[in-house]
Amino acid sequence: MKEQFDKKLVEKIKASFSTYEEPFDPAEWEKFSNAYFRPKKKGWMVFWPFLGAGIAASLLFFFIYFPEQEKIDEKVRALTDTISIENPAFSEKGNLATQDPEISGQLEDLPENDLNSGNLEGSITLKDREPRNYEKGADRKPLEQIPEVKADERNFWSTALAETWDGFQEAVTQKIDSNFLSEEPSDPRGMISLSEADAERMIEEWKAEEKEAESQTGSNKSRAFKVGLMLSPQSNSNPVSGMNLGAGLMSEISLSRKLKLDVGLAYASQSVSQQSLQPLAQEAASPSFDMRANSNIVDTDYQLNFASLDIPVNLKYKVFDRKQTGIYLITGLSSMVYLEQNTVETYEAQSLFSANSFNGTLEYAPNTQKFSNVITPKAGNRGADLAGLLNISFGYEYQLNDEFYFSLEPFYKIPLSNLTFADQQFSIGGVNLRMNFNLRNK
Amino acid sequence: MEKDLIQKAQKRDKKSLERLYRHFYGYAMSIALRYSGGREEACEIVNDSFMKAFDKLDQFSLENSFKGWFRRIIINTSVDYYRKNLKHYSAMDIDKAGAETCDPGVIEELSREDILRSLGELPETLRLVFNMYEIEGYKHHEIGEKLGIPASTCRTYLARAKEKLREKIIAINQIKNEGAVR
Question: What percent of chain B has pLDDT over 90?
């Protein structure tokens, strides 16, 4: 009877739908054409925020470094120009030759190499023959008192080169005294009498002073760029199995002395116990015999697994600054690129009866069956979540030496939208252990 | 005429694509309605199917039947839709229906709407298995592969689907009879 019923039903369904067609609905075409003919996003467009962040970071890097490099170049150029331009022998050889035949003859005797800007001694020797101060028959005593030597290198060279040889010697002595030894000028001739031990002590003092000056300069200037390795023990808000370990690379770009930009890439694999999306009536699992059902769900389990690349872009603000340590407040956004993701849905059902597949009758055969269903996203479906997590963290940094920094950053990531293809919301907490390397010192 | 339309549509001509959509919309809906729980779901399946078909239109050979090709796309889309939304479906509805005696005569009185309503009220898995096996002629192992379930489970689901349908059709018939008596 039942078989006949089923057979007739199938025939009826086939007959009812074999020629039947639903009337066209123009609204559906509108909906379809809007979705289908809309300009499609190209695959690589998904990565434009990362590309943008990379360009921005490069520009920042460029603007921080370029002015510094320019300043250094400018200083070097200024020093070179000062020496070469203010070397009168170099610029006025022609004039001397035309003005005074005696000097002209002396100049011609000089090798050409002696007149270049690098050969300062040669230039200086010629200095006392400069036409402005040259007087026939006059001895080589200074015509004017040597002006006080100033800290400015340009003034020093112009003063020194403008005077006679004795004046120059005195000016250089004063310069050496003021720069390296003490405030009181000393006679260079006196230095000849220095013992070897004293000389060594002086050299050590100079070295110590230089080192101190360098370290001061270094600490004042911001460490512009650091690259670091990172390990991140972490867990999510619905963990399946405790902690997971993430790892990756982080770079830190100094925007100012206190403000830094952190950009990185970290790999982590997570298993999330999915929020139950289909609440099941657990009372159905009761072995009561007055139940109508012959299959009772006795246990269910939903699990989301994914391996992802976390791309954080964070701003760090230094709230506590000491010579070797610092404490930061950190916030920013994390984007996730999923390398692998799937959900596993497992349910266990207790079956009291089974239908005979041949005649359709019920047979009492109690058993428990476990069903598992693994769902993976279609290719290209939700491969990434842009700015899906808000990062909140603070960090403690310790400077191990000039090049290496160790930092400890407990973090908490709050979801801003649904994550993964399964549209789940979960937060992630953990600690970033970072070993940073300062590229500035290289 | 159909071939001309497809040929033009293969050149990505928007007007031709629209005409193709209009031409096969009714056909697609009649299939999708059987696989879905309601009109809204059916529309979604139809539009997804058209998107897939339009995207792969250049792979279609004019020597074959477009309807047959498109039918397969619609069924696959329905299966995809089912798999995608599996987590939202309730597993509790896969219970066995109460076994009742049934008279095949009641089937003659069924309208298309009655059939759609009965199918629409079936749990998604049972509806898919019933349609694929009984209407489309798939084998149990083929259905099992597509739905990710064992062939034996597929057989059980089919039996349950039939039982459920019997129950629903009898219920519909009873309601109709009660209405007629009043």
Answer: 38
| pLDDT above 70 (res B15) | yes
Q: How confident is the model at residue A207 (pLDDT cuts 50, 70, 90)?
A: confident
User: For residue A332, what are the CA distances in angstroms to A316, A384, A415?
Assistant: 9, 17, 12
Residue A211 has pLDDT above 50, yes or no: yes
CA-based angle B20:B23:B28, to the nearest 5? 100
Give the C-alpha separation, A274 to A276, whole Å: 6
Tell me which residue of A311, A279, A299, A275 sits closest to A422, measured CA to CA.
A275
Cβ-based neighbours of A103, under 8 Å, separated by 6 or more: A96, A97, A129, A131, A134
| Whether the predicted pLDDT of A231 surpasses 80 | yes
More reliable by pLDDT, B132 or A216: B132
DSSP calls for A357-397: TTT--EEEEEEEEEEEEEE-PPTTSS-EEEEEEEEEEEEEE
Nearest residue of chain B to residue A13 (CA atoms): B115
How far away is chain B from the Cα of A337, in angstroms, using its nearest Cα?
A: 21
Cα separation values, B117 from A3, A398, B33, B34, B171, Å:
22, 70, 10, 9, 12
Query: Residue B5 corresponds to which amino acid?
Result: L
Q: Are A252 and A316 within 8 A, CB to CB?
A: yes
* Chain centroid offset of residue A353 CA: 63
- Whether the predicted pLDDT of A131 surpasses 50: no
Put simply, whether B157 touches A (Cβ < 8 Å) is no
* d(C-alpha A149, C-alpha A157), whole Å: 9
Q: Which 55-74 residues of chain B touch chain A by CB within 8 A? A: none
Residue type, B59: Q
Contacts of A382 in chain B (CB under 8 A): none
Structure confidence by residue, pLDDT tens digits, A74-84: 777 777 666 55
- β-strand pairing of A384-399 with A244-254: unpaired
Residues 6+ apart with CB under 8 A from A89: A115, A122, A123, A126, A127
Please give the pLDDT value at position B48: 93
Q: Give the whole-angstrom CA distance, residue A158 versus residue A168.
A: 10
Query: pTM for this one?
Result: 0.40
Task: Give the CA-trace dihedral at B33, B38, B42, B45, to 10 degrees.
Answer: -120
Residue B79 forms contact with A (CB below 8 Å): no
The whole-number pLDDT of residue A216 equals 54
Question: How far is residue A305's CA from residue A376's CA, in Å, rounded to a whole number?
Answer: 10
pLDDT band (50, 70, 90) for residue A279: very low
- pLDDT higher at A292 or A417: A417
Chain A 13-72, CB below 8 Å of chain B: which residues? 13-14, 16-17, 20-25, 28-29, 31-33, 35-37
Which class for A277: exposed (0-12), middle (13-18), buried (19 or more C-beta within 10 A)? middle
Nearest-neighbour CA in chain A from B112: distance (Å): 6
ipTM value, please give it: 0.84
Residue A3: in which H helix or E strand, if any?
helix A2-18
Three-class secondary structure assignment of A161-180: HHCCHHHHHHHHHHHHHHHH
Minimum CA–CA partner of A343 in chain B: B87
Q: Quote the pLDDT of residue A422.
A: 82
**Does A324 score more than 50 pLDDT?**
yes
